[in-house]
Design goal:
single chain, six-stranded mixed sheet
């Protein structure tokens, strides 16, 4: 007989004992590996010997500092530390053990710099000048490090490098995140779930927070083609970060170096599947079932026996430097017959367009002052295949835009006395228009209305957020550094809901103009009492004002205890409180005026516990092992309103998440091979009442796996990139998202209790890609490439109906891309 063991009865003592046992085991393993590492490297690790080492990188032609140049310190083949230069061209390495190192500096468009240097107290500063690759030169990449996903040994953060990244042309930023981040699971319709949460994460662009788009919208906030580098924080959060924090994704977008550049690409794709009937032979449409040799078009009449799928797109980018001013402009267009993961294998009513426009402007005021601006607009217009077994003409259009202006000022560059100030402002806009089809069966019932008289819902929602973020940091000595700052944003907008009944007669209408704000202030310090130990201590205060809710405020202390075991190994323990409000525009007050019992959605409040260890090996492998546990009261999820595509955030009284994560990355300068593996086992479940969203109260019971709970997630990638061509393969495994638990069996709550009866069938999906660069006259090159997603055409249920509708895997898709570089 099953006995429920409440995960929610949390014992701090038991948790500490478990973490300490895990940490001691990892500590002993790392000590053993570290002793082995010390024997193979000529470095000293005597207490007090460690130094701060600074590298400044310049452009040889302009003598201006270079931002986002990669600087690496190596002992032979072993990566000791890697940094990117800041806006002043500086890369600062803390706690470098004196000794001989190989220093490698590279930046796209420049010849790579390599040297062997000794770092000690008498040589703690160096400068490097990079020369731009001339038009007639051909850069041989045979010895070039082709790392795509890496791990920062000192912090444990995972880092994505776009330099050698070749995503499918229709790839989106959420796919990039899911494939390059441990603890992330693949989800339907371009979503990604991080550490058991439903996509609550925030982008930072040039130091400015850019929250996710209009709630329930389909278009992306960022086009992955413009990203140069991304740093993922899923734990160990400093106090400076607030808001939606399942993860923080720190993006760096770079203006390409040197001369005028033009890049253009176009692609076209189609399914390459049997589809149930012979080529050029008509068949009877079969809406459900896997493809087979039997007659009938199993993917629906939109595909037909010709296997034709309308999938195409184009992109264009321009960049140049005019003295101290640099710019990068990019635009792209995508069209497809399958924009949304569908509730059945058959393809129907799913045509969609995506448009992106992006611009980045840089201006160097002086060696100590720097301005940068980002301009972005995205629009998605798509049909909605929500209603299975019928073609209802549901249409949704979403838009997202942001504009940022960042000012960086260096007050002091003196070693162990650096001082910097940052001020950034932004404006964020979004909108969503949802129009149901004329033949839709009405299903939404107003709380105060007649249950026998349902309605179709139409929505027109828009918002504008204006905000500011500041940060001042100063180092008092090698042992003490501190930072203070604040964030503030104000949101205004409107929600306009209209309704019609089955005969088209107008029903109730709700028009709400809303105003809200978010404010946060923080102070944090880094204490380094011993060479092998560091404390990051911080406190944050947040205040959230939202319509129809009382003032919400929260104090969030955060403590991170880092062990710098040796140059190749580090570990940390972390505890932090997190206050995570939902989007103000996402409250969806459609029923607020029709029910006295319904309430708005409150902010999530978390206690996060974490332990992590990172180690790099001498043959190019870097590893990370992490354990986390998160207790939320309340937690957040989202729920579909009626039979529409409209979603609203809701609260679950208690949400519990725990997991183990493993990340491995491989990169070696003497081989064109690189690869990575991200694996995690995570359990996220909720219990108690489900409230908020101005909907009727329901109940999750004593334990229910969340709709974004997937126990085991694995991504493995192998990349081969010699001179002028590339080939890669990515495999993604998921043990299955929820199927709605049709059997109604009780849930177990242990980390290794898979509850497979309540989840879809596990699956592996493999994608491959390859391309070749053809050099023409001068600086012109052409790059044809081919991508195949789901190469084994494994059709399966991604997710069953639960808080939202069911979704199926996309069939095999073959895409040909042609790019021209000038």
């Amino acid at each position: 007989m099953y006995t429920y063991q409440p995960f929610g009865k949390f014992s701090f003592g038991n948790f500490v004992n478990a973490v300490l046992r895990l940490f001691v085991t990892l500590f002993l393993i790392s000590i053993y590996s570290s002793v082995f590492a010390q024997g193979r490297n000529s470095v000293s690790n005597a207490p007090g010997d460690n130094v701060q080492f600074t590298v400044v990188v310049y452009d040889a032609a302009t003598d201006f500092p270079l931002e986002l140049a990669r600087v690496m310190l190596r002992h032979g083949k072993t990566l000791v530390a890697g940094k990117v230069t800041n806006v002043g061209g500086r890369a600062i390495f803390q706690d470098v053990v004196p000794g001989w190192y190989n220093i490698v500096v590279r930046s796209v468009g420049y010849s790579e710099f390599y040297d062997s240097i000794r770092i000690d107290k008498s040589h703690a500063f160096d400068s490097v000048t990079l020369h731009e690759v001339k038009q007639e030169e051909v850069v041989v990449l045979g010895s070039h490090e082709a790392n795509i996903s890496t791990i920062d040994v000192k912090t444990g953060n995972q880092v994505f490098e776009a330099e050698t990244y070749h995503a499918p042309p229709a790839g989106r930023i959420t796919g990039l995140i899911q494939q390059n981040l441990a603890g992330a699971s693949r989800a339907p319709t371009g979503e990604v779930h991080i550490r058991g949460q439903h996509g609550e994460y925030t982008y930072y662009v040039d130091g400015i927070p850019v929250p996710l788009g209009v709630f329930g919208g389909l278009n992306e906030v960022v086009d992955p083609k413009v990203i140069d580098r991304a740093t993922f924080l899923t734990g160990g959060f400093p106090a400076e970060y607030g808001g939606q924090m399942a993860a923080v994704i720190d993006l760096n977008n770079r203006v390409p170096s040197g001369r005028f550049h033009v890049d253009f690409s176009t692609y076209a794709g189609s399914y390459f599947v049997p589809n149930g009937s012979s080529p050029f032979t008509p068949g009877t449409s079969v809406p459900f079932g896997a493809s087979s040799s039997a007659p009938g078009d199993t993917l629906g009449s939109r595909v037909g026996p010709f296997r034709a799928l309308n999938s195409n797109g184009q992109s264009l980018s321009l960049s140049d430097h005019l003295g101290r001013f640099g710019y990068f402009l990019s635009g792209s267009r995508q069209e497809t017959d399958r924009r949304i993961d569908q509730p059945s294998p058959a393809l129907y009513h799913d045509h969609g367009f995506d448009y992106f426009v992006y611009g980045k402007l840089d201006y160097i005021l002086s060696e100590a002052d720097y301005l940068t601006m980002n301009l972005n607009y995205g629009n998605t217009h798509t049909q909605i295949p929500f209603d299975a077994l019928s073609i209802s003409d549901d249409i949704q259009e979403t838009s997202n835009a942001f504009q940022t202006l960042s000012y960086f000022h260096t007050i002091s560059t003196e070693a162990d006395a650096e001082k910097n100030i940052f001020v950034g402002g932004y404006v964020r806009e979004g909108g969503l228009i949802f129009t149901p089809g004329l033949t839709d069966a009405p299903a939404f019932v107003f709380p105060s209305g007649d249950s026998a008289h349902p309605y179709n819902l139409m929505e027109d929602r828009k918002f504008t957020t204006a905000g500011i973020r500041t940060k001042y940091d100063a180092r008092l000595s090698h042992e003490v550094q501190y930072a203070v700052g604040l964030t503030f944003s104000n949101t205004t907008g409107s929600e306009h809901f209209t309704s019609t009944d089955s005969v088209g007669k107008a029903g109730p209408e709700v028009l709400t103009n809303f105003v809200g704000s978010d404010f946060g202030v923080f102070a944090q310090t880094e204490l380094h009492p011993l060479e092998w130990m560091r404390f990051d201590l911080g406190i944050r205060y947040d205040q959230h004002i939202a319509p129809d809710l009382p003032l919400q405020e929260h104090w969030s202390p955060r403590v991170k205890w880092t062990f710098l075991i040796d140059p190749f190994t580090s570990a940390y323990l972390y505890y932090g409180k997190v206050f995570m409000p939902t989007n103000i525009e996402g409250l969806r007050s459609i029923t607020a005026g029709n029910s006295t019992s319904a309430t708005g959605t409150a902010a999530e409040k978390d206690d996060i516990y974490e332990a992590s260890i990172t180690h790099t090996f001498d043959f190019g492998l870097t590893s990370k092992l992490a354990y986390f546990r998160k207790e939320s009261a309340p937690g957040l999820d989202d729920q579909t309103v009626g039979s529409s595509a409209i979603k609203t955030p809701v609260n679950i009284a208690q949400v519990h998440a725990a997991g183990l994560e493993v990340a491995l990355t491989y990169s070696n300068p003497v081989t064109p091979f690189s690869g990575y593996l991200n694996a995690s086992i995570i359990h996220a479940y909720g219990s108690g009442p489900i409230t908020g969203g101005f909907l009727r109260v329901s109940d999750a019971g004593i334990a229910t796996d969340l709709d974004h709970d997937q126990r085991l997630s694995i991504v493995a990638s192998l990349n081969y990139q010699p001179s002028d061509w590339f080939a890669n393969i990515i495999g993604t495994y998921g043990s299955g998202l929820t199927n709605g638990n049709p059997s109604g069996l009780p849930y177990s709550t242990g980390l290794f209790d898979f509850n497979q009866f309540a989840h879809t069938t596990p699956s592996w999906i493999f994608n491959i890609g390859g391309g070749y660069t053809i050099h023409l006259k001068g600086s012109v090159s052409v790059e044809p490439s081919l991508y195949v997603t789901n190469i084994f055409n494994h059709l399966h249920l991604l997710k069953g109906a639960f808080f939202s509708g069911a979704s199926w895997e996309e069939p095999r898709n073959v895409t040909l891309k042609l790019a021209v570089h000038l």
